[in-house]
Amino acid sequence: MAKWLDAKVVGRTDWNDHLFSLRFACEDFPRFKAGQFTKVGVEQGDKVLARPYSLVSGPDDKEIEIIAVPVEDGMLSPQLHKLQVGDPLKIMSPATGFLVLDEVPKSRDLWLMATGTGVGPFLSILATEQIWQTYENVVLVYGARFEHDLAYTKLIETYAEHHPDNFHFVPIVSRETITNGLHGRIPTLLKTQSIQQKVGLDIHPDNSQVMLCGNPAMIEDATQTLIELGLSKHLRRSPGHISLERYW
Ligand SMILES: Cc1cc2nc3c(=O)[nH]c(=O)nc-3n(C[C@H](O)[C@H](O)[C@H](O)COP(=O)(O)OP(=O)(O)OC[C@H]3O[C@@H](n4cnc5c(N)ncnc54)[C@H](O)[C@@H]3O)c2cc1C
């Protein structure tokens, strides 16, 4: 049964002034599946003000991590942004959600496509052995406005070092150009085949599964482009190729 657990902030990373990660300890939090989310919140009187957040940490990590932005005029996220080491938090047990590898049909290639904080569940999935044992090629496509909005790039580079033949990282920024990545928006760069050419792989229903997470406009437009490439939305009752999670 779902219940609130007490947690305590043990670390924070400020990627810039509007993008941060919180790491917290919660000894009783049950094991979760990589890619899942749970509610995180703060006590307000006798109530808990909480919102769902994807877990960035892997299922084997001792501590739990989330990445978030302080949404202007948001009720909770500006409060989370102010939390410091030692501050208390509430976390809902257990985690839940279907953006997990067990829900994705088998295929040769797995494409993980995220914008902004949507990279969180994919970092959790990349931390598992399951992904490396299941797919011949794993591609992380990660979009943001500016290069400084791309979090965890050092961690992502370690996957490229450990899996040089089957991991491809495509950073994409829309408001400046970067040396090792692409410039523009994910849906457009899929349509022009720029992402596929950069990686050297095609996206085809016979060999590709795609997981999408992040900005709703990106999800909608990328889904449309992928459908034009012959892929279809994946549902339990009707297997396809596109699995997604919307944050709002
Ligand atoms: C399954 C799920 C997983 C989620 N995981 C994350 C996560 O890992 N990290 C995260 O930051 N948020 C995540 N969210 C969104 C999060 O739950 C909150 O909506 C967000 O933090 C804003 O809460 P708030 O109380 O400050 O804003 P509210 O007062 O509730 O206002 C909500 C509005 O904030 C905007 N908004 C919500 N999320 C974002 C965002 N990430 N970036 C920009 N604008 C946003 C939208 O316009 C939305 O309508 C997730 C949502 C869902 C449904």
What is this entry, summarized?
By secondary structure, this protein is of the alpha/beta class. Helix content is 22%, strand content 34%. Strands 4-3-6-1-2-5 form a six-stranded antiparallel β-sheet.
Describe the protein:
With 248 residues, this protein is an alpha/beta fold. The protein has 2 domains: 3-93, Beta Barrel (Elongation Factor Tu (Ef-tu), domain 3); 101-246, Nucleotide-binding domain of ferredoxin-NADP reductase (FNR) module (Rossmann fold, 3-Layer(aba) Sandwich). It has 7 helices and 12 strands. It has helices at 77-82, 120-126, 129-134, 153-162, 186-191, 194-199, 216-228, and strands spanning 3-16, 19-25, 37-44, 47-54, 64-68, 88-93, 109-115, 137-144, 167-173, 182-183, 208-214, 242-246. 39% of the residues are buried. The structure holds flavin-adenine dinucleotide.
* Topology as a string of helices (H) and strands (E): EEEEEHEEHHEHEEHHEHE
Low-pLDDT runs: none
User: Share of helix among residues?
Assistant: 10-25%
Annotated CATH topology of the largest domain: Rossmann fold
For the sheet with most strands, the description reads: 6 strands, antiparallel
Task: Give a count of the beta strands, DSSP E runs of length 2 or more.
Answer: 12
What is the name of the CATH class of the largest domain? Alpha Beta
How far is it from the N-terminal to the C-terminal residue, by CA?
A: 25 Å
Shape-level CATH architecture of the largest domain: 3-Layer(aba) Sandwich
> Which hetero compounds are present in the coordinates?
flavin-adenine dinucleotide
- CATH level 4 superfamily of the largest domain: Nucleotide-binding domain of ferredoxin-NADP reductase (FNR) module
